[in-house]
Amino acid sequence: LASVPVKFKSCGKSSDTLNLGSVIFSEYPVVPGTKLTMTANMALQAAITSGAKFDVVAKYGFVPVCSKKNVDMCSFLSSRGLPLTCPIAAGDYSKTMTQVIPRAAPRGTYHIHLQARDQTGAEILCVEASVELAKASSIDEIELVDDEEPTSLFLAETFANAAAVAEKESTDSWTAEASTELATVPVKVTNCGKSADLFSLAQLSVNQLPVIKGEHVTLQANGKLAADVTSGATLNLVAKYGKITVLKKSGIDMCSFLKSAGVSCPVAAGAFSKTLSHSVPSLTPSGTYHFHAQSFDKAGQEIFCYEVAIEIASAKADTLPEFLDSVFENARGVAAEDADLFEMLSE
Questions:
Q1: Which residues are within 8 A (CB) of 206 and not within 5 positions of it... i.e. 6 or more apart?
Q2: 253 or 276: whose pLDDT is higher?
Q3: pTM for the full predicted model
Q4: Where would you tag: which of 36, 51, 131, 263 has the fewest CB atoms within 10 A of its CB?
Q5: Residue 58, by phi and psi: left (phi above 0), alpha (psi -120 to 50) or beta?
Q6: Nearest to 102 by CA among 31, 155, 46
Q7: Using CA atoms, how far apart are residues 159 and 154, in angstroms rounded to an integer?
Q8: Which residues contact residue 293 at a Cβ distance below 8 angstroms, ignoring those fewer than 6 apart?
Q9: Sign of dihedral through CA atoms 201, 202, 206, 208?
Q10: 3-state DSSP call for residue 254?
């Protein structure tokens, strides 16, 4: 049951005919990925009929994440199945609704401004409220170095959202020779392996540095394999954005991974050269990513261990509002299937 009062303030006139007495939430702060029960207690002094409109603006800090004007109130109430339908007669009301809060909604404080007008255009309500969304209960594939650092938590959710959007955007994985662009720009690679490793990387090249999000990246790896790679080989991958671990996977089947890139097991010993291409999701946050890759054969002998830093950039410099806009675009993409409320608070 709703039990936590939410603070709000009136920005309206003394002549407003809809007086909001209280708003009660079932929990506060609100937690993404959970069901929120909301109860509104109000007094309506004049009937609301067809033609009533409302405007809503929501901001995350100073960044607008929603701005909708002249929304038809009766159509909105009808389409959402809310417990009020037009015409709404004058009287006292206490209405309760339950809404799933999208798991992808970034945590933080949202400032909401709502103004409503009746069928004649006269203001009937104006309220402002700040609502805090707390950290989600879990973030798949995310491992934080500092679990108490707010920026880390925020970015972790950003990457979780971006990863989910990227998964929907991309139906294929790395593909062989998918781009005509040549990988001619060498990438600095650090060998973290042993002298007895089975694979020696001579050079790793890409088509351009920094890698541009929203475009294809082409990679070419040249090296030498001292022994066949057969079934049972495994791969461990770690990717970090600063100190935030955005990907950590262990025990990946190497043959399955190679197959997705057009290489079949067993991979024969000898010279190795492979060119691969992949589209970089447009919603990937810009910055430097540090990758650590380590592989073992079925007997447990290390095949290779390499570390590399790759910069991903936008075609133009990201500003803070543009970066935050990409965060909410990620959240909108992830939340599309379960986000009636988030849809209301999005473009």
A1: 183, 185, 187, 217, 218, 219, 220, 310
A2: 253
A3: 0.50
A4: 51
A5: beta
A6: 31
A7: 9
A8: 235, 236, 237, 238, 304, 305, 306, 307
A9: positive
A10: helix
